[in-house]
Design brief:
With 722 residues, the chain is α/β, with parallel strands linked by helices. The protein folds into 4 domains: 7-77 and 90-224, Glutaconate Coenzyme A-transferase; 238-335 and 432-624, Glutaconate Coenzyme A-transferase, CATH 3.40.1080.20; 340-421, no CATH class; 651-718, no CATH class. The protein contains 28 helices and 25 strands. The strands form 5 sheets. Strands 1, 2, 3, 4, 5, 6, 7, 8 and 9 form a 9-stranded mixed β-sheet that branches. It has an 8-stranded mixed β-sheet with strand order 16-15-11-10-17-20-24-25, with helices on both faces. A hairpin with a 2-residue loop joins strand 24 (565-568) and strand 25. The longest helix is centred in the last third of the chain and has 18 residues, at 651-668. The radius of gyration is 28 Å and the shape is globular. It starts with 6 loop residues before the first strand and ends with a helix.
């Protein structure tokens, strides 16, 4: 049967016309989270709905990205040049602009299952139309909501003379949704799948690669190649680094790693790179920070401090740019293979990636292949590089050019001939990373684009159904994910181990569940895995410091019966399988000491810990200033810098951002350095001039600009930057 190819369009409007002609005016449009949205096509369909009230449009997605917008004059001066440089011609989503103005048309509805963190807390439409679902359940729920249009940003490449496409940054849900929609279409339902080519998008391999037959239409016109959304990397603060160091020591060589985006994920990567490249300094730091003294038992049992000889395999819903850094550092290098018997032999170290006659023997002894090789056995051996690629199989014989060998491995002479003439050199088809979506700074996209084809083929972009759960192919997934460490961030943890990550206790959504429950579930299901939740011990708002370790909280993301490991900047609380009293004690050990006694009092009142219990002395000095003192000598040696994985900001932008943020916090707490404030009023240090030039305040005109200049100078003085 002839495969039907997609209709090719060079116009967004033509494709929008085709969508409405096919499905009508009741459009339920699904589009991937974050980067994989075809912005111009979505905006065109949204405009149609705004202009025609008879169209009913529902968009189902997650993480609708926005260019940063300033909330004040100083912020505007700092942000505008940065946004222009970094985000360039990235098209904003018109529905987000209208939603922020409370001007959405009544015939439109936005449903998201994950929000940009904290961005929509006070927007009624977003709060009312959020759907709480596990990442792996998103396709199911999208079908339940009646999807009839799916649109996606795609990459394009010619492979062996054929034009192929890649779901690139987002095969996460589109693989299942596309399969389901094509089945519906075959059953007579009217739906539409469209891809929009963006040549800036890295062409990723694995399950993300597809042909034009996966789409009804493909928009391919270079004029629509907009700049990919590339959020600049944030700095890594002391508390981030301390959490990263604790977590990095819980990762075993030869294991599997999941991490997320942001400063905490970057801090883990920086810790792992230090462990790999500067192992003595890494171990010295673990001792200087009292990590080995206080939590050495957990590290010895579940982690390690040595360099990575076998390396790690990445299996993470999000391919963050840190994984590329770990790949370049020789840490992400453990290859896995899409075959359970082969993977089992590798795990048992009965074979290596080097192909030898012993490889054949091990496969025979494990009954992975028959002694008389079948065509299926031959294809398996050839696929994974055990046999050379230029061989062929006919009627029980292996052909090697003009030579022919019996495929009966039970015959010693035939075995020896095949071993001498037909074996490959190394296993093929290995994968160092399974990921489901990505987004990151421009340097990350550049790094992916600059990889050789062979390197990029080591990264399998695939469905979230594969990465985030064990269902379907459980044996292979368990073998691939040996010694897995699923590391994710939370907002709060209570003394009994329940974690809050996605919403406030009044019900308002901060972000979403995403894959966090999936990771926790897998960590409990796999015998040698652990789930690690990272919690910053305190939060500062309006100048007031509060504890993120609480006795109880009115919303839970991960219930206490799934507690595992909690890491704060003060250490490791290994709480899986522990009693409530022991869990309480261990979490108190990693709590900021300003809040320990009040929490202990609440626990005693609730009868959750002995009335005679006291927190050990060595955990009663958990204070930020102690962490700064411990880290200072290593900073002097060049470690624990603000941007260990690179930065997108200029030096001036970085200093200005940190200084103005500190000023905002100090002002909220009514903390003022009056001597420095007076100095800022009466003089302008020469060292301040590059920063003032960046803010266009080096030659202020008028009272307002002079006041702004004074504020900037004071912020720099107050942060000891000039």
């Amino acid at each position: 049967m002839k495969v039907k190819s997609a209709i090719q369009y060079d116009s967004i409007k033509q494709c929008a016309d085709a969508i409405i002609d096919r499905v009508g005016k009741n459009i339920v449009l699904g589009t991937p989270l974050a980067l994989g949205k075809p912005n111009q096509l979505i905006n065109e369909i949204y405009r149609r709905a705004k202009e025609d009230s008879s169209i009913r449009l529902r968009i189902i997605t997650a993480l609708s990205l926005e260019r940063p917008r300033a909330s004040g004059e100083l912020e505007r001066r700092l942000l505008e040049p940065l946004v222009e440089r970094v985000f360039a011609d990235f098209p904003d989503f018109e529905y987000i602009i209208d939603m922020r103005k409370n001007q959405l048309p009544p015939n439109f509805e936005l449903i998201e299952f994950y929000n940009k963190s904290g961005s929509f807390l006070n927007i009624p439409h977003a709060q009312q139309n959020y759907i709480s679902t596990n990442y792996t359940h998103a396709p199911r729920d999208i079908f339940a909501l009646g999807i009839n249009v799916a649109v996606q940003l795609i990459g394009k490449k010619t492979i062996d003379g054929k034009t192929m496409y890649s779901m690139s940054c987002n095969p996460d849900t589109p693989i299942e949704i596309g399969d389901g929609m094509r089945k519906q279409a075959a059953d007579g339902e009217k739906n539409f799948i469209a891809g929009q080519v963006n040549n800036n998008l890295p062409f990723m391999y694995g399950d993300a690669v597809c042909g034009s037959e996966n789409f009804d239409a493909i928009i391919d016109n270079p004029k629509y190649d907009f700049t990919l959304f590339a959020p600049p990397k944030g700095s890594i603060a002391t508390d981030d680094y301390m959490i990263g160091m604790n977590a990095s020591a819980l990762i075993q060589d030869g294991g599997t790693l999941q991490i997320g985006i942001g400063s905490l994920g970057d801090a883990i990567c920086a810790g792992l790179q230090m462990r790999q490249d500067h192992n003595k300094a890494y171990c010295d730091a673990l001792h200087a920070f009292n990590i080995m003294e206080n939590f050495g038992d957990s590290i010895e049992r579940w982690g390690g401090t040595n360099r990575f000889e076998e390396g790690l395999h990445g299996s993470s819903e999000m391919l963050v740019d840190g994984f590329v850094h770990l790949f370049r550092s020789g840490i992400i290098k453990r290859k896995v293979y899409d075959n359970a018997p082969l993977q089992k032999l590798l795990n048992q170290k009965k074979i290596t990636e080097k192909v030898t006659p012993e490889t054949l023997t091990a496969l025979l002894e494990s009954e992975a292949i028959h002694r008389k090789l079948t065509k299926r056995n031959f294809d398996f051996l050839q696929k994974f590089g055990i046999l050379k690629p230029d061989l062929s199989y006919h009627d029980g014989e292996i052909k090697n050019g003009s030579a022919s060998y019996s495929a009966d491995l039970a015959d010693r002479e035939s075995f020896d001939k095949i071993a001498a003439n037909c074996l490959g050199k190394e296993l093929r088809q290995g994968i160092v990373m399974h990921g489901s979506f990505f987004i990151g700074p421009q340097s990350f996209y550049d790094a992916l684009n600059e990889m050789s084809e062979e390197e990029r083929q080591l990264f399998n972009m695939t469905s979230v159904q594969y990465v985030n759960q064990l269902y379907g192919g459980e044996e292979l997934k368990a073998l691939q994910r040996s010694k897995a460490r699923y590391i994710n961030a939370g907002m709060k943890v209570n003394l009994l181990g329940a974690v809050t990550s996605d919403a406030l206790e009044d019900g308002r959504v901060v972000s979403g569940v995403g894959g966090q429950y999936n990771f926790v579930s897998m960590a409990h299901a796999l015998k040698d895995a652990r789930g690690i939740i990272m919690i910053k011990s305190t939060r500062t708002k309006g100048g007031k410091v509060s504890s993120n370790v609480v006795f109880n909280y009115g919303h839970t993301t991960i219930p206490r019966h799934l507690r595992d490991i909690v890491v704060t900047e003060y250490g490791i609380a290994d709480i899986r399988g522990q009693t409530d009293s022991e869990t309480t004690a261990r979490i108190l050990n990693v709590t900021d000491s300003r809040f320990q006694q009040d929490l202990l009092k609440q626990a005693k009142k609730a009868k959750k810990i002995s009335p005679n219990y006291t927190i050990p002395d060595r955990f009663r000095n958990n204070l930020p200033e102690k962490l700064e003192q411990q880290m200072a000598p290593f900073r002097e040696q060049g470690y624990f810098q603000l941007y260990p994985l690179g930065q997108d900001l200029t030096d001036e932008e970085s200093v200005l951002g940190l200084s103005l943020r500190k000023l905002k916090n100090d002002a909220a707490a009514k903390r003022f350095a009056f001597g420095k404030l007076g100095k800022a009023f009466v003089s302008t240090p020469q060292a301040a001039m590059p920063y003032l030039e960046r803010m266009q305040l080096d030659k202020p005109s008028g009272l307002k600009e002079k006041m702004l200049k004074t504020i900037v100078v004071y912020a720099l003085l107050n942060n000891n930057k000039i």
